[in-house]
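Below is our example:
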Amino acid sequence: MNTYKLVIAYDGTNYFGWQELPEKPSVATALNKAFAKVFKSEIKVLGASRTDAGVHALGQVARIKTDLDIAPDKLKWAWNNALPADITIRSLEVVDDSFNPFCNVEQKIYHYHFFTERPLPFTQRYGYFYPYKIDFDILKKALQFFVGTHDFCAFKSSEDMRENTVRTIESIALDYVPRYKAYRITVKGQKFLRHMIRRIVGASLAVASSSAPSSAKSFGGHGKATADRSKNGHTLESLQKIMDSCNPRHTLPNAPAQGLMLYKIIYKESKT
């Protein structure tokens, strides 16, 4: 039995997430079917992160085990040629049989992109167009509120039934990417709850737009009044109250899936 480690990139737009689902397209299903088609052999690809419907990846890590003995470069080439254009195996290597993509994760890095002016058609599916005025100083403060170790029960999917909802976010950074005319939120941590990053981004944007004064510069607001957002009364102080409530059913929004991308997974035995 041979064990291979893969790094995979995909556009999640046309998939119901990573994990196999009955009668619905998923990234894992596409990989398994393409392998079976080319090599006439069944596999079950195991991914490190179960990205949700519409979420993208540049650095998803996965593992397969197979009785076939094929050189990694030939396996990668043939498999890639059978995959749909929105999935690419970036690297493939033989690893020890004990390798498990869930284990020994030191850090996961996610990017969330949002636009403040209408994006070009070529980039719109990779970010969230947010047409409201934003106070960027407040946005940075709101994002930093989530850094550290907290019980994120209030900022997970209501369908996530895990009992342990304490997680540690190592850092959150906000940058502007000129070539895409997009803002990038980079979130780093070892593990996350379902929808956790999207809820953090949605909450932070809501607070920042609610707090933006009417005279604040509008980045692509197209005349939409900040007052429309301020009616919700979201403030930096309300973030703490919602965190303390441990209730995911609150009025702070969940940012759309298309802005989120799994950028990289770093393992303890490898700093690359």
Helices lie at 27-39, 72-82, 136-145, 196-211, 227-230, 236-245. The chain has two domains: 2-94, 105-267. Residues 196-211 form the longest helix (16 residues). The longest strand covers residues 166-177.
